[in-house]
Amino acid sequence: MLTRLIPLFKRSLWALLALSVCASANVFAIDAQSLWLPASYQELAPGLRKMALAVEADERCVKVMRGTLHASSQRHIPVYNITCRGADRRTFAVVVDGLTADMEFQGDAPVEIKGFDEKRIQAAWQKCEIFLQKKTRFMHSMKRLQQGRPAPDSSQLGAVTFILDFDAEDLQGKPLHYRATCFASNDVSAKLRIGPRPKPQL
After folding, report:
1. More confident residue, 167 or 74
2. In what order do the strands lie in the sheet with 140-144?
3. Domains of the chain with bracketed CATH
4. pLDDT tens, 168-183?
5. How far apart are CA 55 and CA 76, in angstroms?
6. What is the largest CA-CA distance in the chain?
């Protein structure tokens, strides 16, 4: 009886291990297109991916939507800006120290950006949203790669920038990959530009 149970136990154990590996791959699968670095900073690519995986492992981050260098980053002191999607499907930024792996979740408190409080940021995004819908209304199979308001970029003094990636199709059904960049400042209420999405550098 025992000799017949041993092979069955082994098969069950291998099945559990396979399921565990598959589950881990699904949970921590980050699209390479979501991580971007300038060509001159490619040596930081492993660190960016490592930090993106660490952020996605946090319960507050359901999925990493985008990862890049933060405006304050330096070559020998890397700081990463990771955009997450939460359980409420809103996106928020996580600033990660590449040396210590310390994480600062921007979604924990109202965002304030050098002259742009949360109310002004939301007003700017609403105008960007109107422009985006107007410019993409005739695109075929338009699909946003992230839902909700993108994390605001504060790298420029007195201004805010939103970046949103989306896909579409041409008349022949060929896939098209776009990036919408919307800029607002004290002098410009909102200005939207749509162009080809940069190819992943990783």
Report:
1. 167
2. 140-144, 159-169, 175-185, 191-196
3. 30-108 (3.10.450), 118-196 (no CATH)
4. 998 888 999 999 999 9
5. 21
6. 82
